[in-house]
From TrEMBL, chain A:
Function, in words: Catalyzes the condensation of carbamoyl phosphate and aspartate to form carbamoyl aspartate and inorganic phosphate, the committed step in the de novo pyrimidine nucleotide biosynthesis pathway.
Occurrences of domain Aspartate/ornithine carbamoyltransferase carbamoyl-P binding (ranges): 7-144
Pathway: Pyrimidine metabolism; UMP biosynthesis via de novo pathway; (S)-dihydroorotate from bicarbonate: step 2/3
Catalytic activity of the protein: carbamoyl phosphate + L-aspartate = N-carbamoyl-L-aspartate + phosphate + H(+)
PROSITE patterns associated with the record: CARBAMOYLTRANSFERASE
Similarity comment: Belongs to the aspartate/ornithine carbamoyltransferase superfamily. ATCase family.
Name of protein: Aspartate carbamoyltransferase
Gene: pyrB
GO terms of molecular function: amino acid binding; aspartate carbamoyltransferase activity
Annotated carbamoyl phosphate binding sites: 54-55, 104, 132, 135, 266-267
Listed EC numbers: 2.1.3.2
Binding site for L-aspartate: 83, 165, 227
Automatic annotation (TrEMBL), chain B:
Pfam families in the cross-refs: PyrI (PF01948), PyrI_C (PF02748)
Organism field: Candidatus Heimdallarchaeum aukensis
Cofactor dependency: Zn(2+)
One annotated GO molecular function: metal ion binding
HAMAP family from the UniProt entry: Asp_carb_tr_reg
Lineage of producing organism: Archaea, Promethearchaeati, Candidatus Heimdallarchaeota, Candidatus Heimdallarchaeia (ex Rinke et al. 2021) (nom. nud.), Candidatus Heimdallarchaeales
Protein name as annotated: Aspartate carbamoyltransferase regulatory chain
Gene name per UniProt: pyrI
Presence of the UniProt keyword Transferase in the record: yes
Gene Ontology CC: aspartate carbamoyltransferase complex
Length: 306, 157
């Protein structure tokens, strides 16, 4: 298995590397007891300059389940960044306190700083609107688990494709697979950014940007929904008008394929109604749980343990 | 037809300095701006715009006495006047001839416009871009991935 030191983007991760992480995550999921002491004596630093529930807790859970310890902070306000400390200095300092770090920051390009200034492995827990690679990896793992493959699937991403940091990471991850057909469904204000489109054009990937899910929902294997944020719309009337068109209810899913799955990175607000939760296709809570196995696999890989 | 005066302006030799030839027509003023040549410049500057050219049909030419380009200036010039020829003149002779080419990477001379890019936030890193298209010119920030093109780019040159 190939080891790596920094995970800040899915763009530079090969399909082989992704598959090796998924394979290890699957082994951990099946036999977690085999991994209980793999990180004894190791410390994971949690450097979260922005709020988080799932990402932070699942990284903490992952390290604790591997027998390691955690330290860190959950807000920039309680760290020295509030006094003006740079990310570079924070990372150099944390190098003496921990064996591996996960960082979430509102700034974009943190990965390049980590590569330059950190001697310990660092994983992105989300950077600005740029990337959220571990979310994308757990999304891919969930899809792989459901279908046994990712190649050849028809997948739609719906909602805020412009500001959601998961979206570029998931798209670049999907681009590593063969014959994936992608539908990008969003209001015109929230389409993918030009630099993401430009990157996608460099892959052998079929993608279609549309604004209405009804025309394709019956042929989909996966629908990945993201939250449309109210504050992204200068005119609140536009938001009110659009939000209902991007809402998933049991009626929306009337004619989906038997094997169809519905994913969401969470938190959701009202883009998936609670009645959908009990349908067999609703996999978003399982998806969140999968995050622990994938992050355990990543910690083991970056520490060079497995 | 060029007048005798025009021809004289273009062919008059300078003893020491830089002659930039084959500038895309109309870009000479921008070239002077990039080189920081303004009304306080103490030496002779000759500028010819839309001169007939065998290779380009029309071109601009700039001659600047007493000026040697810095690497930063050359890098900027290559972005606004690709394929222009820089002649370094010493004692009336062309000492060196450089054809400007758009580089693969552009570093430090241009800022990323994304306010959330680490290069705009006191971190110890300098802006750096990959040239992802030469025609039209499009740069991509190596840190935050954002694209810089069109007016946003030309305003910084």
């Amino acid at each position: 298995m190939k080891f790596t030191k920094f995970i800040f983007s899915t763009l530079n991760l090969s399909r082989e590397y992704l598959e090796s992480i998924f394979s290890l995550a699957s082994k951990i999921e099946q036999n977690p007891e085999n991994y209980l002491n793999k990180c004894n004596g190791k410390i994971l630093a949690i450097l979260f300059f922005e709020p988080s529930t799932r990402t932070m807790l699942s990284f903490e859970s992952a390290m604790l389940r591997l027998g390691g310890s955690i330290l860190g902070f959950a807000s920039g306000k309680t760290s020295s960044s509030a006094k003006g400390e740079t990310i570079a200095d924070t990372l150099r300092m944390i190098n003496g306190y921990a064996d591996i770090a996960v960082i979430r920051h509102y700034l974009e390009g943190v990965g390049e700083i980590a590569k330059k200034y950190s001697s310990i492995p660092v994983i992105s827990g989300g950077t600005g609107t740029q990337a959220h690679p571990t979310q994308a990896m757990l999304d891919l793992y969930t899809i792989k688990k459901a279908f046994g493959k990712i190649d050849g699937l028809k997948i739609a991403l719906m909602g805020d494709l412009k500001y959601g940091r998961t979206i570029p990471s998931l798209l670049y991850g999907l681009a590593k697979y063969d014959d994936v057909t992608l539908y990008l469904i969003s209001p015109k204000e929230l389409k993918i950014r030009s630099h993401v489109r430009q990157r996608l054009n460099g892959f052998n990937l079929k993608f279609y940007e549309i604004d209405d899910i009804s025309q394709i929902i019956d042929e989909l294997d996966v629908l990945y929904v993201t939250r449309i944020q109210k504050e992204r719309f200068p005119d609140q009337l536009d938001y009110e008008r659009l939000k209902s068109s991007y809402k998933i209810s049991p009626e929306t899913l009337n004619n989906v394929k038997d094997s169809f799955i519905l994913l969401h990175p969470l938190p959701r607000v009202d883009e998936i109604t609670p009645e959908v939760d009990s349908l067999p296709c609703a996999k978003y809570f399982e998806q969140a749980k999968n995050g622990v196995f994938v992050r355990m696999a990543l910690i083991l890989n970056l520490l060079g343990v497995e | 037809m060029e007048t005798v005066e025009e021809k004289k302006l273009i062919v008059t030799k300078i003893k020491e300095g830089t002659v930039i030839d084959r500038i895309p027509p109309g870009k000479a003023l921008k070239v002077l701006h990039v080189l920081g040549i303004n009304d306080n410049y103490p030496y002779t500057v000759a500028l010819a715009m839309r001169v007939k050219s065998k290779k380009m049909q029309l071109k601009d030419i700039v001659k600047i006495k007493g000026k040697m380009l810095t690497s930063e200036e050359s890098q900027k010039l290559s972005l606004i006047a690709p394929n222009a020829v820089v002649n370094i003149i010493n004692d009336y002779k062309v000492e060196k001839k450089i054809v400007l080419e758009i580089p693969e990477q552009v570093s430090e001379i241009i800022k990323c416009l994304n306010p959330n890019c680490v290069t705009n936030n006191r971190e110890p890193v300098f802006p750096s871009f990959s040239v992802i298209s030469k025609e039209p010119l499009i740069l991509q920030c190596k840190y935050c991935d954002r694209l810089l093109e069109g007016q946003n780019l030309s305003e910084q040159l």
